[in-house]
Every structure is written in structure tokens, then in C-alpha cells.
Amino acid sequence: MATDTAATTGTASPDEPLYVNGQTELDDVTSDNDVVLADFYADWCGPCQMLEPVVETLAEQTDAAVAKIDVDENQALASAYGVRGVPTLVLFADGEQVEEVVGLQDEDALKDLIESYTE
Q1: Please, which residues bridge with residue 101 across strands?
Q2: What ranges do the domains of the chain cover?
Q3: Where in the numbering of this chain does the Thioredoxin domain appear (predicted)?
Q4: How far apart are alpha carbons 17 and 28 in whole angstroms?
């Protein structure tokens, strides 16, 4: 099995997006990681598809965990966070929501936003 990297330290963030289904899973991700970028998306959303490689890069190159949340499958969760349009990115630091950004975003701007909470 190639899952050895997950067992190394509790401080390392996943190198790829985590697909989250429901509040409990999101709570687990935000409590297990210092900084989490939650990407509320929909498969039918063009800007969401354009943002996909950006969030994959952020998961790989930053100290933040990236959670992907399909709003069609998680309408209650999207509603709980006030998501009215997709893509919506919600940043959590130390388990608390600290930022929300709506719409297609530049990779560098998102990286700067994440780094402002990870340094």
C-alpha cells in the first residue's frame, strides 16, 4: 500500500484535494489541518472546471489542505456556509472560517491568501 505518507506526521497537509461529503467530513478536515481551502464547486460550472488545476496545484504546493465540496450533493453544507454561487472558496485557519472568495481566482492571489495564514 502506498499510504505511508499519510501516517508520517499530523502536520503535513495532503498533496491532493480531498473530496468532502457532509459537515462531519468537513469538520474532520478542518480539525486535522491548520489551514484548509474549501472549494465549493459544481460539475456543470465552467469557471469551476477552470479553477480545478489551480486548486490541485495549491494542494500540492502549499501547506494548506484543499477540500472539494460538490454543492449539488451537499446543498445543506453549501447553504450553511452561505454559498450562493460557484465557485466559492472558503478558507479555514485553526478550525475557523477566516476568508471567503467567490468566482474564478488567480493562482498567485490564492497562494498569497493561504500563505498569509500558514506563516
Answers
A1: 89
A2: 14-118
A3: 7-119
A4: 14
Q: pLDDT tens for residues 13-60? A: 889 999 999 999 999 999 999 999 999 999 999 999 999 999 999 999
pLDDT digits (tens, 9 = 90+) for 66-87: 999 999 999 999 999 999 999 9
How far apart (Å, rounded) are the C-alpha atoms in residues 5 and 95? 23
Q: What residue type is assigned to position 63 of the chain?
A: D
- What whole-number distance in Å separates Cα of residue 46 and Cα of residue 77? 21
Say yes or no: domain 14-118 is CATH 1.20.58.760.
no
Cell of 117: 495564514
Backbone torsion region of residue 83, taken as left when φ is above 0, otherwise alpha when ψ lies between -120 and 50, otherwise beta = beta
Mind telling me the catalytic residues?
45, 48
Kind of pairing, strands 65-70 and 35-41?
parallel
Q: Are the C-beta atoms of residues 63 and 114 closer than 8 Å to each other?
A: yes
